[in-house]
Write a structure and sequence with these properties.
single chain; alpha+beta; Fumarylacetoacetate hydrolase, domain 2; 2 domains; 5 helices; 16% helix
Length: 192
């Protein structure tokens, strides 16, 4: 979790959503360098050793959970009911698509609705933060070892478009800057 003004976010660890720990004793932010240098293990050790001070996050903006992600990789129609909503059969192979990293927003960030959008809609998704290079993995254990974290997110998308645009998310406005691919679900800021 990251909190604070845009550009000055503070990395924190939350324990049951009640206690917040200031992760700056281990890292300046949760960015690609943090994950690539293996600092997540250092953070886990510091949490386990109780060497991280608490932080009062009252009134602070909840930011995107990761700074400067290199990619946002999505799996479309990932369950049968979702495919049925679209009028499709469930896919036999995963539908993989990318979102631009600048579409990631925090729970308290405004959503910029495209000019001609009739309305917006949202979905709750599961986000998996990959914290290590993951190539040619041979086992489930190797795959799980690459996961830095899991987060429930809310994905905002434009709705009310013609059926021919359904296959092209850029036409729907799903990939427009400021329309978040994902925002963390939190106790405040939902549904904006």
């Amino acid at each position: 979790m990251r909190v604070g003004r845009r550009g000055s976010e503070v990395p924190v660890v939350t324990l049951d959503g009640e206690i917040f720990l200031d992760a700056r004793v281990v890292t300046d932010d949760y960015h690609p360098e943090f994950f690539s240098r293996g600092a997540l293990d250092d953070l886990r050790a510091s949490v386990a050793d109780a060497t991280i001070p608490t932080l009062d996050v009252t009134g602070l903006r909840i930011s995107a959970p990761v700074a400067r992600p290199t990619a946002i990789i999505c799996i479309g129609q990932n369950y049968a009911a979702h495919a049925a909503e679209s009028g499709d059969e469930p896919p036999t192979i995963p539908i993989v698509f990318l979102k631009h990293p600048n579409t990631l927003r925090g729970a308290d960030d405004d959503v910029r609705v495209p000019l001609r959008a009739e309305r917006t809609d949202w979905e709750v998704e599961l986000a998996v933060v990959i914290g290590a290079e993951a190539r040619y993995l041979q086992s489930e254990e190797q795959s799980l070892a690459c996961i830095a974290g899991v987060r429930r997110i809310q994905r905002r998308l434009r709705a009310g478009v013609s059926a021919h645009a359904r296959r092209w998310p850029v036409v729907q406005g799903q990939m427009l800057r400021g329309l978040p691919a994902a925002r963390p679900l939190a106790g405040r800021g939902r549904g904006r």
